[in-house]
Write a structure and sequence with these properties.
The complex is a heterodimer of chains A (about 425) and B (about 350).
Chain A: E1 14-23, E2 26-27, H1 29-38, E3 44-45, E4 58-59, H2 73-89, E5 99-104, H3 110-122, H4 142-151, E6 157-160, H5 166-179, E7 185-192, H6 196-204, E8 228-236, H7 237-243, E9 249-258, H8 271-284, E10 293-295, H9 302-315, H10 317-322, E11 328-329, H11 332-335, H12 342-356, E12 358-359, E13 382-383, E14 390-397, E15 401-409
Parallel strand pairs in A: 5-6, 5-7, 10-11, 10-14
Antiparallel strand pairs in A: 1-2, 1-8, 1-9, 3-4, 7-8, 9-15, 12-13, 14-15
Chain B: E1 4-13, E2 16-17, H1 19-26, E3 34-39, E4 42-47, H2 55-60, H3 69-84, H4 91-94, E5 97-102, H5 108-114, E6 118-120, E7 123-125, H6 129-132, H7 139-148, E8 154-157, H8 163-176, E9 182-189, H9 193-201, E10 210-211, E11 213-221, E12 232-240, H10 244-255, E13 262-266, H11 270-279, E14 284-286, H12 289-292, H13 299-310, E15 321-327, E16 333-339
Parallel strand pairs in B: 4-10, 5-8, 5-9, 13-14, 13-15
Antiparallel strand pairs in B: 1-2, 1-11, 1-12, 3-4, 6-7, 9-11, 12-16, 15-16
Helix pairs in contact in B: 3-7
The chains are: A alpha/beta (about 425), B alpha/beta (about 350).
Chain lengths: ~425, ~350
């Protein structure tokens, strides 16, 4: 069906009708939620390779995956999450040119690519490169192509490559596709496989924790890497209603910005994140007073977490002064930092938080930063004092990028 | 509706810097393809830029020497469009400008460079922090944002050959919604010899000569800087999964532009060129890839830069439109409509 020349109000509203997740807590949304409720970390000793040469031992790896010949680990995770989101949304796999896919990833199918690089560095001879034989299979956007073929998406396909904000920006872009009538339904989210490549990189720049991952803790000393795939089924409200779909949440707005400060270090004045948050609130037609919970990036690195608090202090200054600042948490101490999947993982868990009126906790947080101004939810999930209606989800990335999304509890009229 | 103007265009290609170099190659006046040996027995042609030397970019940023080659292409075109739009002298306004770029392959070269680490005697050796920090596809936008103080919305799409079109599609939305007043929009691609080997071996490829570089335009809202020089007006960006004719007509209808106003079409390949001639018999059809090569994610940037600049020529009177076409992922096609404004 072609786009309507004069969209109705329901064509312009974007809702979430399905969720799919693979995380260190296992395959499935409910496994992750159970882990959150219990306030237990899924970070465990690394099993996919021997980490001793790195002097570090843990990551948020997905356990129990059978290695599939010729399938990259990241794409394996993506496939599993795709199956869940399709079932949850009640989408069939009939080819549809009004169905799109927008995914974010940091390194894509990194193991396939690095295998190629290693072979080529050792012996750069034509005829011995490429085990898949297809040029395109080594592109970062190839996972999106795979997902589109699995679900029968013949409509718009895009991949966002913006490191840790990738999948949040993918969600925002998917929303734009729907609002502009380029599609009726869009699969959005992100995927990332745990790899020695990224592990080595983060270790060599000194960004990995020597102890537990402790977001927003005075004693935090770095992050712990994770992996996973987090997907959301987005569609216009008119499409959801026409299908009789269960609406799980509404996506109200988003924002993205550049620090223009440094390639890897965040701007200590937090102007970039502040702009992204204000952009998202403006698009949602809301103010800081309307936010009931902040799902923060909270990587556990010294600079990121401090920068986030500076941004929140600016945007929520009045509420901080009144002692009514919304609760904050970071889920990375439970799942690890999933990089390109992080924004979607946070958004997905925000949908569950809205549905179940529980604020996910930050575990391993003993001495919060922020001078006591902020209500960090620690240890276990907690009900909010008033109904949770809107969540702000934020992420930041290398390259000086920041993103923000605003999601709303679904309340049928 | 808010009007959008193109006020700068820039390019990096194997012929050199600037949109004129694209025009020169397209006119058949460029230098021949480079020929590189993948093995003693196999030579492959490529439109090679290599490690870009750009004295003006080097003068503009004291860390130019640290910038990886992929990012240099994006950095240089950003500097070019800011210069042409007279924004290099306006740091206050630059704070509102964002960067939206596309690429198919991104930072593959830096990934390959970083992969030189190894485990020796139980220890990790050879991991270079400075390389790892730029193993990110959004590095070109990041460097440009840092160097030029661009703090507006930033996006990087890694969406194959249509990546730069995805960028301009998103940019149109950001600008019309008032999220930002101006954006650098384009595409970047860097090919290493590994790409050449892969391309040469892939039996499913169409066989075009790979070509690296970048292209970009600066698009701004009409209320951002009244009175500035305008190259062309961006009327709209469309995407469609049907035929060329259907996609083109859909965009023309939306923009309320009569078919006859399209005097030039920039086609994203030979098949699209044929479709364009059939659909717009009186229009000039150009196929940049024929002589410029296949730059994958950079193609949209080149095409937009060529079209924006071409609309500025004296041969094209007010009201004349250029339709820029490119293939997206899967069955999608993109269309961008530019016009010489009557009131510029």
């Amino acid at each position: 069906m072609p786009p309507s020349p004069s969209p109705s109000a329901e064509d312009l509203r974007v809702v979430v009708t399905g969720l799919g997740l693979v995380s260190a807590a296992g395959v499935g949304v409910e496994n992750a939620w159970s882990q959150l409720l219990a306030g237990e970390t899924s970070i465990t000793p690394i099993r996919s390779f021997d980490p001793r040469p790195w002097g570090l031992e843990v990551a948020g790896e997905v356990q129990g995956l059978e290695r599939e010949e010729g399938v990259d680990r990241a794409e394996q995770l993506l496939r599993l999450a795709t199956d869940e989101v399709m079932a949850d949304a009640g989408w069939d796999r009939t080819p549809d040119s009004r169905l799109g896919v927008v995914l974010g990833t940091c390194q894509g199918a990194i193991e396939r690519v690095r295998g190629l690089h290693r072979r080529y560095l050792q012996r750069p001879v034509v005829g011995e490169v490429g085990d898949e034989g297809r040029f395109a299979a080594y592109r970062p956007g190839y996972g999106t192509e795979r997902a589109a073929s699995w679900i029968g998406a013949r409509g718009p396909r895009a991949t966002v490559g913006m490191v840790c904000v990738s999948s949040a920006v993918a969600i925002w872009h998917g929303m734009d596709l729907l609002r502009r009538g380029a599609a009726d339904r869009v699969l959005v989210g992100g995927f990332e496989g745990f790899s020695p490549f990224v592990f080595t990189g983060f270790q060599c720049i000194g960004a990995l924790a020597k102890g537990p991952l402790r977001p927003f803790d005075e004693q935090r000393d770095g992050t712990v890497l994770g992996e996973g795939a987090a997907l959301l089924a987005l569609e216009t409200l008119s499409s959801a209603k026409a299908r009789g779909a269960r609406v799980r949440a509404e996506l109200l707005g988003g924002g993205v910005s550049a620090d223009g400060f440094h390639m890897t270090a965040p701007d200590p004045k937090a102007g970039g994140l502040e702009r992204a948050i204000r952009m998202a609130l403006a698009e949602a037609g809301l103010g800081p007073e309307d936010i009931d919970y902040i799902s923060a990036h909270g990587t556990g690195t010294a600079f990121n977490d401090q920068m986030e608090i500076v941004a929140f202090n600016k945007v929520f200054a009045d509420r901080v002064a009144q002692g009514t600042a919304p609760p904050i948490s970071s889920k990375k101490s439970i799942f690890g930092h999933t990089l390109g999947a992080a924004g979607a993982l946070d958004a997905l868990l925000s949908v569950l938080a809205l549905e179940r009126e529980l604020v996910p906790p930050t575990v391993a947080l003993a001495e919060p930063i922020g001078g006591g101004s902020w209500d960090f939810v620690r240890g276990r999930a907690r009900p909010t004092e008033s109904p949770m209606r809107r969540v702000l989800s934020t992420n930041s990335a290398f390259g000086g990028n920041n993103s923000a999304l605003v999601l709303s509890r679904w309340e049928a009229a | 509706m808010t009007r959008l103007f193109v006020t700068g265009a820039g390019a990096v290609c194997f012929e050199g810097l600037g949109v004129d170099t694209l025009r020169r190659v397209h006119a058949g006046q460029g230098r021949p393809w480079d020929e590189e040996l993948l093995s003693p027995a196999q030579a492959v042609r490529i439109g090679r830029v290599g490690r870009l030397q750009d004295p003006e970019s080097a003068a503009a940023y004291d860390r130019w020497g640290q910038i990886d080659t992929y990012s240099r292409y994006g950095f240089s075109v950003t500097r070019q469009v800011l210069a042409e739009a007279s924004l290099l002298q306006d740091p206050e306004r630059r704070l509102q400008v964002g960067v939206v770029l596309g690429t198919a392959w991104g930072c593959v070269e830096e990934n390959q460079r970083f992969e030189r680490w190894d485990v020796v005697d139980g220890k990790v050796v050879g991991a270079a922090p400075i390389v790892f920090k730029v193993t990110v596809d959004n590095a070109p936008a990041g460097w440009a944002a840092v160097a030029f103080g661009l703090r507006g919305p930033t996006e990087t799409f890694v969406s194959g050959d249509g990546a730069a079109f995805e960028a301009v599609w998103s940019a149109e939305s950001i600008l019309r919604r008032g999220v930002a007043p101006a954006l650098v929009v384009g595409g970047v691609e860097r090919f290493v010899d590994l790409h050449l080997a892969l391309a040469a071996l892939d039996p499913t490829r169409h066989g075009a000569v790979l070509s690296e570089g970048a292209g970009a335009i600066l698009v701004e809202r009409d209320d951002f800087r009244p009175g500035r020089r305008v190259l062309s007006e961006l009327l709209g960006v469309g995407r469609a999964c049907g035929t060329f004719a259907e996609g083109a007509e859909q965009l023309l209808r939306r923009c309320e532009i009569p078919h006859r106003s399209v005097v030039r079409i920039v086609a994203g390949g030979p098949a699209a060129g044929q479709d364009a001639r059939a659909s717009f018999p009186g229009a000039e059809v150009i196929e940049p890839k024929a002589l410029l090569g296949e730059p994958h994610g950079a193609y949209g940037g080149w095409a937009l830069a060529l079209a924006a600049g071409a609309a500025d020529g004296p041969a094209r009177g007010p009201g004349a439109c250029t339709l820029v076409h490119g293939h997206g992922e899967g069955e999608e096609q993109f269309f961008v409509l530019l016009r010489v404004p009557e009131d510029r």
